[in-house]
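fyi for ur records
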Amino acid sequence: MKMKKIVAVSTLALLLAGCNPGDQEAEKDTKTEEQANQNADEKVAQDNEKSDAEVAKEKEAAEAKKEAEAQAEAEKKAEEQAAADKKAAEEKAAEEEAEEKAAEDKADESATEDKTDETTDEKKDDGKTDSAQDPEPSKPSKPESETPDVDKSDTKADLSLGELVVVNKKYSLPIDYKPSDLVVPDVSFSYSGVLEQSYMRAPAAKQMEKMFADAKAANITLNAVSGFRSGARQTVLYNNYVARDGKEAADQYSARPGHSEHQTGLVFDISAPSVGNGLTAALGDTKEGKWIANNAAKYGFIVRYDRGFQSRTGYTYEPWHIRYVGVGPATQIKNNGQTLEEYMKVGH
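which gave:
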């Protein structure tokens, strides 16, 4: 009875306060639901925030990976290009080396053939060959440089000067010029038979016979190699030298057609068995070469292209090339250390 009274009093109190127990329970449930919704929203927000960060992080990682892959690809391409360039360079170097070796082999083969043609054609018991047509002079190993005043213009040589006619890089003969008094000197030759190159003008031939006889008496053995040479023959020889060694090198030891002293008939190339009868600078250091240099002037000859004279003649040293000018001029030229150009006061 007392409990019922208490409940009735509580209920009355609530009614007097403007609410009833059912409303209070409903309000409580509402608050609980709102709190749950708020917690859910906060969780969703947190989840969204976390998702955005992860996306950003993943995107950044993907971009970094893509950049790294691009850099790695670029480095790979660079390495491949470098390897390709290196391979191409090596192949090119190998090709150039092969071409150079082939050229050297060809030159060696040509030199061997030339040497065989000049020194071993049908050897006879006397050591002479049947033919030694215009043997080639040795190519200088270290060509000297010409002076800038070397005149390569084409001026006609003055044939009226006779034995003192100057024929060089400046002064030329008509391509078909041939002396009328050519004879074969009675001297020993480096070959058997008579060829175009066996001839020389009569006055010069007579003096060369005396020189060879006196050399033999002095136990010096000389052999005549090449004398007169026509303009046509010089054309063939010069073109061959240019094809073999190039024009610049050929011009150091071979005359252009019409510019060769051999065409005057006043020149003879002479050599000795001690150098295989070759046209080589080594002749100048032999007893035969020294005898020629010391005694040629007595017979009217000069060593036309003497040692150290290239800047004054335009040609390299040729101890084998003797030129007839007459005893008087030859003696003066030798004693004064002159060239024929200096003696005649003309250019080269």
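The CA atoms of residues 294 and 334 lie 9 Å apart. thats all i got for now
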